Amino acid sequence: MSNPSLRLYTDSSPNGFKISIALEELSVPYQVHHVRIADGEHQQAAFLKLHPHARIPVLVDTSAGITLFESAAILLYLAERSGRLLPQAPAPRWEAISWLMFHSASVGPILGQRVHFEMFADTPLPAAIERYRRLSNEFFATLDQRLADRPWLAGEEYSIADIAGFGWTHIANVIDMDFSHYPHLSEWHARIARRPAVQRGVLIPEPATGP
Ligand SMILES: N[C@@H](CCC(=O)N[C@@H](CS)C(=O)NCC(=O)O)C(=O)O
Predict the structure, then answer these.
(1) Does residue 210 contact residue 14 with C-beta atoms inside 8 Å?
(2) Nearest atom in ligand 1 to 55's CA
(3) Counting atoms of ligand 1 from 1, which one is nearest the CA of 104?
(4) pTM of the predicted model, to two decimals?
(5) Which amino acids bring their CB within 6 angstroms of ligand 1?
(6) Which of 27-41, 151-165, 167-181 has the lowest mean pLDDT?
(7) pLDDT digits 0-9 by tens, 58-89
(8) Looking at residue 24, which CATH number applies to its domain?
(9) pLDDT at 171
């Protein structure tokens, strides 16, 4: 087979899994480049040419001459390129985009801070731990309420908004961050986790052992 035109630069982490899951859902060929954050590979000059802020994921589409960073931008690109994973009708389409942005702007950054202060900070800072627990419980509650009477965040269609959210709830599970007291969110997570493409996506480039 010829070289696939899509190249995914990723590591085993929440933002990376969003893209490997989407690519598996779309069944498109792609090449994986494992960027080992723990070894500082994301700081190397060759990678900084792809992502000026040294983060994964990055997606390169060689057939279009396009290089993308920021997981939400990559998910939108894949949805637009394939015509899938994003509702076509304007109302649910924009609902999906709103929830996608909610994940990017609120859920991801806040959970990132929570994980840092709970697991990695050199000095325990109770005020920071309390703040990020409270903020994350607030959006878990918002997501739970949203999912109380619809299967997916945009309504009836599974979309990139669900994939973006799952990247983080998957990691929450891996590190034993409990969200089982949010029943609708927990059922939504389990529904996504049962999808074969998702089960393949979370193994790329290898299974996560931490955030
Ligand atoms: N907002 C970015 C976040 C990207 C991000 O923080 N990626 C993490 C891995 S999940 C990373 O590359 N961390 C390396 C570092 O912080 O030095 C996105 O959604 O793509």
Answers:
(1) no
(2) 12
(3) 19
(4) 0.97
(5) 13-16, 37, 42, 54-57, 70-71, 104, 108
(6) 167-181
(7) 999 999 999 999 999 999 999 999 999 999 99
(8) 3.40.30.10
(9) 92
